[in-house]
Every structure is written in C-alpha cells, then in structure tokens.
Amino acid sequence: MRRIEGKVALVAGAGGGIGGAGALGLAREGAAVVCADIDNAAAAATAAQIRAAGGRATALGLDVRDRPAIDSAVASAVREFARLDVLLESVGVSQTAPFLDLDPGEWERVIAVNLTGMFHLGQAAARQMVRQGGGGSIINITSQLAEVARPERSAYVASKGGGRSLTHAMALELAPHGVRVNAIAPGPTLTGLTRASYADPERRRATVAQIPLGRLGEPEDIVGALLFLASDESRWVTGSTVTVDGGYLVL
Ligand SMILES: NC(=O)c1ccc[n+]([C@@H]2O[C@H](COP(=O)([O-])OP(=O)(O)OC[C@H]3O[C@@H](n4cnc5c(N)ncnc54)[C@H](O)[C@@H]3O)[C@@H](O)[C@H]2O)c1
Asked: Less Cβ around it within 10 Å: N or C end of the chain?
C-alpha cells in the first residue's frame, strides 16, 4: 500500500522546484494531483510527468492573488477527483532591497503572493475539507527565514514569519474538523527562485559555509518531510514546522 493511496492533492506552485518535486512525490505515493501555478506551461509539464509515470494528474493556471480562481481550482479538483485531502502551498516570490529603500509596492507584492495567497488557498481548501468530512492535511512551505532575518529581505522574512503564525492559527481552528495544518521550512535550496543568485560562486560559497551538512538543498530533499505530513503517519502532528535545512538554523 502506497503512503497516500486514494487521496487527492492540490499543489500550488507545482511548476516550481519544491512544488514540482512535491507533486511528483505525492503522485508516486498514490495521490491524484491537481498541479496549479501562475506558469500554466510549467504546471502542465509537471502533470505530464506524473501521467507519464502512470499517475493521475491535471493542470491549471492559477494566480494565488485571485480568490475566485482559487475557489474554482478547488472546485475543479473535486469535479475531477471527487474530493480534496491534501493542499501543498509552495508558491513564492523573492525580494532583495535594503529596508530603507524598500518600495511599498514591492512590499505589497511579496505579502500578497507569499502570505495573503497562503490565506486564500488555505481557507478555500479547508472549507472543502470541512464540507466533505474526513479531515485533511494542509502543508505550507515557509522558510528558515521565518526564524531568522537576513539583510535586504525584510518583506520576504515578514511574509514567511506570517506564514508560520498563520499555520499555527489554522491548525488551532481546524483541529476540531480533523484537518491538520503544518509547515515545512526549507533552507537554501536550488530552485528557480534561487538559481540565479547561487550562480555567483562567492554567494554560493558563503551560503554553503552556513550549512553544517555542507551543500545547498535540492527540491527532492524536501519531499520526505512532505510525504510524512501528507500521509496518516503524521496523524497526531498539527501546528508543527518541519525544518529541512541541512542544519542552517543551528549554526
Ligand atoms: N529555494 C529556496 O531556497 C527556498 C528556501 C526557503 C523557502 N522557499 C520557499 O519554497 C516555496 C517554493 O519555492 P521554490 O524555491 O520551489 O521556487 P520556484 O520559483 O521554483 O517555485 C515557486 C513557484 O511559484 C509560482 N508563483 C509565483 N507567483 C505566483 C502566483 N502569484 N500565483 C501562483 N503561482 C505563483 C512560480 O511560477 C513558481 O513555479 C516558496 O514559498 C519559497 O519561498 C524556498
């Protein structure tokens, strides 16, 4: 028996590094997956990979700032696969600017996508899970930067700290419905979000020096924690953050 057999997952950010690996991992363990991303072609490519491996998947374009589109993504999961058991929220945008120079519009953009998007997705998915009964698992991708600040990342850091607190608040209110809500906090991981900055050898060396396990993460490194949180193996786990960072936070 596979670990997530018969369940239905919506993966937001499925066209990205962590979301893509997560969607493939969930499908490998038996879930039917709705792959959603603002980059429609990237979401479709992930769904095609799942189907090529014998899994069940559909794809749709989705901007997490668009609440009606989120509600229809949830409805589409239910239409296609009859229910919704797992939400993986792996959407994110980055930002680099000194706090004193940070443009308010840039602040709004990062909070809208990383934090308000998490609220919209979480609420829409949770409403469906509560309506259908039988519980569910919501997994929000936050960051090691929910715990520590780094220079010139104030909007990103605030969005991730907010995501961590939102995960706590959702866990508390959704527990009576059997819906568990947890976060995964990845450390520096090679994805579309970070690849350009780690192309700079000095930046890469400085970052790796902060990681006790001595290398950057790969998206596949995050999948083990995701499958644990998505499956019934974590049935008594809610409101937690699983840190997957090569030891970054203990250095
Ligand atoms: N890569 C890292 O080092 C790292 C570290 C900690 C946390 N994270 C978090 O992991 C999550 C996934 O990021 P990733 O590293 O896989 O990067 P990624 O860029 O590969 O994936 C992010 C995905 O989000 C999508 N997206 C952006 N704006 C969107 C919107 N408005 N609506 C819908 N989709 C949108 C992008 O198209 C992309 O496919 C993010 O929350 C990110 O903050 C990443």
From this structure: N
